[in-house]
Structure formats: C-alpha cells, structure tokens
Amino acid sequence: MSTQTRDEPLPSLADLHALNALQQPTYPDQSAVESVVAQLRIMPPLVFAGECDELRQKMARVAAGEAFVLQGGDCAETFAGVTADNIQRKLRVLLSMAVLLTYAARVPVVKLGRIAGQYAKPRSSDTETRDGVTLPAYRGDAVNGFAFTPEDRKVDPQRLLGVYNASAATLNLTRAFVTGGFADLARAHTWNADFVKQSPAGARYQALADEIEGALAFMEACGIEDETFRTVDFYSSHEALLLEYEHALTRIDSRTSRPYGVSGHFLWIGERTRQLDGPHVELLRHIRNPLGVKLGPTTTPETALELADRLDPDHEPGRITFITRMGHEKVRDILPGVISKVEQSGRKVAWICDPMHGNTFATANGYKTRAFEDVIDEVNGFFDVHEGLGTWPGGVHVELTGDDVTECVGGADELAEADLASRYETACDPRLNRNQSLELAFLVAERLASGRIQRASEVPLLG
Ligand code: PEP
Ligand code: MN
Predict the structure, then answer these.
(1) What is the pTM for the complete model shown?
(2) pLDDT by residue (tens digit) across 123-152?
(3) Ligand 1 atom at minimum distance from 325 CA
(4) How many CB atoms lie within 10 A of CB 361?
(5) Residues near ligand 1 with C-beta < 6 Å?
(6) Packing angle, helices 301-311 and 331-344, rounded to 10
(7) Which ligand number lies closest to the CA of residue 427?
(8) Distance 426 CA to ligand 2 centre (A)
(9) Ligand 1 centroid from CA 283, angstroms
(10) Tens-place pLDDT, residues 146-182
(11) Residues 6+ apart with CB under 8 A from 261
C-alpha cells in the first residue's frame, strides 16, 4: 500500500465505490445521482484553499501545545434549521465558550463549527421499524427526511443540492456575523444577557464578560485598539461521509495544483468509516485540508499510527487531528496507549476529546441521552491522561445547541430523565443546551488554567 500522496491522481468515484463503501445511501436511480454529481462539480467552492491552509497552520499550533480547539455544533444540521436566529444562537454559544476559554485559561482558541455541512449521518441499521412498519433509517437531511413516513424516508439524491445550498447560506451568514460586528468582544456581555437571571452559568459568564469589558476599556485608554478584538476566525467542519458529495466538491487549487475538499474547512472521518483500506481514507488522503479522525474505544495504538501514516505520510504540521471518543469508563485505560504509540513515533498530532459519542444511552422512556456528569468525567479523564503523559490536551469536540433544549440529563439545572420530553428537538444525537455548554466551558477553562499553574510551579520562583 503506497503512502505517497503528492503526485497520485485523485481516485474516481468508481474507484472509491470499489473499496467497499460503508454507510452510503442506497440510491434507487443511478442516473439521477450522476446528474446531481455533475451539477455539484461546477458549483463554486464553499471554502477556499487558502483558508484551509491557514487553518492547518492553526492546527499545527494546537499540535505543538500552543493553542486549544473548540469544535461544536449539532449532531445533525437540518434544512429547516437554516434560519438567521438558529445560526446566530449557535454562533453565540460557541463564541461565548471560546471567549471564556481564551480569557479564563489564557490560551488562543481555534473555533470550529460542526456547521454548514453536517447533514449526513452514519447509522447502526439501514432500516427502522416502528409498530411493525419498516422504513429506511434517517441518514440526515442530505439523504432523506426525518419524519417516519414513506415519503420522507425516501432516499433522494436531489437532497445533495440542498446540502450545498444550505451550507452556502449558513456560511454566508456566519462569515457576516464573525466579521461584521456581532463577534466584537466589546459586545460579549450582550450575547447571554437574556439568560443571566435564570442560570448560574449565565451569571458567571456575565461576570467574566464585565471583566473583559473592563480590560478592553483599559487597553483603549492606553491607546491600544486592535481589529482582532472586533472579528474572529471561525471555520466550518463536518464528517466527510457521502462519497458523491465530497468527491464532487473536491477541486484542484490553481495556486498549488493540489486537490482540496471545498465543502468545508476541516473534514473528519467518522468512527464507522475509518477503515485503513476504505474509500473515506482513500479520498481524504489525497486532499490538502486539515483532517480529523474519530477514534473510539476499540482503537488499537497500531491502528492510530497506521491511520496517521496513511493520511499524513509527510508528517505535515497540523494535518492530523485525532478526535478521541472512548467513553468515560474507558478513556483512562485506552487513551494512554494510543497517545504513547503515536507520540513515540515522533509524530505531533492534535488530540481532541469528543466526550459525547462514547457516553450515549437510552432512557426507560425511550430517549437517547447523555449524562452531563459522564461528559465531564470523560473530559477530566482526557486531561488526566495527557497530564500523566506530559502531552497537550488540544481541544474538545461537543454536540451542542444555542437553544434551551432538554436532551442531555444533569448539569446545574439537574435535568432529569422525566424532563427530556419537554424540549427534545435533535434530529439525531442529544446535544448540550446553552447552560450545559457554558458550564462545560468553565470546567475546561479551569482544567486548562490549573494545568498552566502546575507547569509554571515546576519552575522555582525564588533563588
Ligand atoms: C458524530 O460525530 O456525530 C458521530 C457519528 O461520531 P462518531 O463517528 O464518533 O460515532
Ligand atoms: Mn452525533
């Protein structure tokens, strides 16, 4: 198996499908798929190669222990969710978390949304049965509809054009928000103003925003005015699952003559499709974007290293991010071996903790949920392991929403299983609500800050 990527031609879609493609929709009419792919191939790129290069450089700083990643958003975006309010609320919670991580933990934060492209879902079964009726499983709005009806669940390739359009609209508004004044740090105290009275995390956030405002006023009085306080760099990311869509949105960059995935800045390979000889690894090893790979609890140290070697033969800084999702009970046992093997090879990758996907369970009343305390326990386990090894805990990857939904149990509001019914809105996995997201960010900031103090204390202060 060759690991050379530089001069190899991009494999064709047929080449990829010949590699036992898992988790793909079963399209009834191949000519309809080909027509959609042909249309997508001539659409303008959603992101630019230069932006992907810039993000790769930022991820290199994460791998070097100089920056932290916050990656978050819906499990599954929906077409109906592409509204100004919804996008704004998601950005607001992500930017709030990033601000408090930056300020409280004093680390630069790379901001990555699970946004503008996260429309396709891997599923454990191809079909779903309810009350004796069996229909195709919902695979995300990119493939079929959520409602349990034959019409909605019909697999339709036209939806791929919907993904392109929804992603373009989302990115357009996101770019406007993050550069057009909404992200101005001087306005950080307004982002959760509606929320302060109802929630301890909201109140704590407000106190911090007031401090930031004071710091900015001080800097301004000193004559320091900087454009970087008014805008943020924000990048899109999603799971590169659907081969037709990702292949059609791969373009050769005119500056470098190299292929880039232009459906999003950062693309990741999911836990179920990361086979070394599978089509997802094969496609993504050819593109130049920074890449993520999910690593679940069955990952062996050898597999992690083989994936890194296959996807990043040149050991390029920032190229590879391992997003580990071991589950809170296993993280402390399994993660050390994986990290050690990769680090001992001399590689520097970014390590991110996804404390969501190893901690999902079903309640007695039939809701898929996650317990906030398990999420926190996995994050703490991730930090413990990195602390033990002397490696850098590079970031967190969370499923969240800006809305006050009731999908994960626990947190300061002590949401119980019986509360889940009141606002359970996710199209796929349960997300942290705004309160739980801010709470998580405070806990992560504390861990980061105490790690810093610990490292600083190793240097004797006096004689
Ligand atoms: C996801 O991130 O929504 C997902 C399906 O994750 P994983 O591939 O880790 O199971
Ligand atoms: Mn998910």
Answers:
(1) 0.95
(2) 999 999 999 999 999 999 999 999 999 999
(3) 9
(4) 12
(5) 75, 122, 239, 270-272, 294, 325, 357, 429
(6) 40
(7) 2
(8) 10
(9) 19
(10) 999 999 999 999 999 999 999 999 999 999 999 988 8
(11) 52, 240, 246, 249, 250, 267, 284, 287, 289
